[in-house]
Amino acid sequence: MTAPQAHEQPMSTPPIRSGARLLVPALVFIALVVAAVASLGTPLITSVATTFHVSLDSAQWTLTIALLSGAVATPVLGRLGAGPHRRATILATLAIVVAGSALTVLPLPFAWLLVGRAAQGVGLGLTALMMGVARDHLPEERSAATIALISVVSIIGAGVGYPLAALLAEFGGLRTAYGLGLLVTAIAFVTAWRSMPAAPEGRSAHVNVAGALALAGGLLLVLFLAGERSLWSRHLAVAVSLAVAAVLLLCAWTVSELRTKTPLVDVRAVRHPAVAGANIAMLVGGSGMYLLLTLITRYAQTPHSAGYGFGLTTFVAGLVLIPFSVLGFVAGKLTPRVRERIDGPLLLAGSAAIVGGGFVLFATARSNLAELLAAMSVLGFGVGSFSAAMPGVILAVTPKSETSSAMSFNYVVRSVGYSLGSAIGGLVLAAGTATGRLFPNDGAYTTAALVGVAAMAITTMASLALARRRSSDHGSER
């Protein structure tokens, strides 16, 4: 990502291929597929543990490793996608995802399943590239709406993949569920091959290998420490040592980025108030959004014997995500129109407040399934609006050539936020679980919801501060 330029030199846009009329649906479909496939690990953890005779903690890695590889691959793909070989980068990445999907279907040992899931997770880095293609090859108004929709489907993809995977696993077994991933990723590859145009001329994108390795190591440690909550309670010295190593690696990455002429992310540009404010909002807001999603799905599956919960099966619990996906999609379609009247940071603030309302609903009313569905609907609408508004805030100060790189950094921040949200939820619920009990007490969910309210309040205030800053900047320009 480079610093915003007052007058960016126009670049020639290459002729779009014959499949260009399908470009928008192709971009949205690919973003949806990679998000849904990466989320396949969530409903299949129990089936993996049973099929491969491993512990639930080990089976959890089928989800964690996909998120880790996605976070690491995203900035590298973002830089490659800013260069002249964007089409080749997209196709090569999808080929890796297809190969990984094949490994999850073949009757191989558990280690190969993890390799396949890691390969599937690499596809998460394609979301920012889809935005770059849209911004380069579509008229401004249509590209803004398309980018917003891509951002939304990258979030609601989990709501699409979860119930489908759970249903297939219930009736056809684990391999059948993973077979769905192989089918849709193969279709996504063919779609990209037919529809992805070449990048505009005059682009260059050299990858800072040393910086990429330092960032990868730092992110791996941060996300690992966020996901392995037991490490902090059982091996505190090891956890602290790894945390120090993560800080040192990220500091080394920052120094490397400042010195190189070809940074993965222009750290100086990240300090721009609009970009910094948006990323802070994404980090805190993302942790809150994922926290509520985790709380609701876990609460719905808790058996009645715990004194609360609904004892839903994995498949039925997946259906609870449908309101989340539907309302998120609706919000994503409405947001570009609303943004014509309301500034982007104000939309972020309003969206964060809506998600905060979802937390309040969950904290005060969860005695029946209808109330749980209402909280999930509010969450979906808030997340959809937030996700659709976020790219516009960042891209307003970003040159076209750096779209992929800028949004890649934002998605790395989102991944870290999601991991923190999951970790915070786990810690709060664990603290509310009595010795010898399998499930936390009902009050622990209320405490976790109040933590979420605080997170969304911080996000709202950060977004309002950004809106005030932008308003004063526009006033000084006059």
Automatic annotation (TrEMBL):
The keyword Hydrolase does not apply. It is a multi-pass membrane protein. Its main location: membrane. Gene3D superfamilies: MFS general substrate transporter like domains. GO terms for molecular function: transmembrane transporter activity. Pfam families: MFS_1. It is found in: Cell membrane. Residues 20-471 form the Major facilitator superfamily (MFS) profile domain. Keywords: Membrane, Transmembrane, Transmembrane helix, Transport. InterPro entries: MFS (IPR011701), MFS_dom (IPR020846), MFS_trans_sf (IPR036259). One of its GO terms (cellular component) is plasma membrane. The chain crosses the membrane at residues 20-41, 61-78, 90-112, 118-134, 146-169, 175-193, 205-226, 232-253, 274-296, 308-332, 344-366, 372-397, 418-439, 445-467. SUPFAM superfamilies: MFS general substrate transporter. This is Major facilitator superfamily (MFS) profile domain-containing protein. It comes from Actinomadura macrotermitis. The lineage of its organism: Bacteria, Bacillati, Actinomycetota, Actinomycetes, Streptosporangiales.
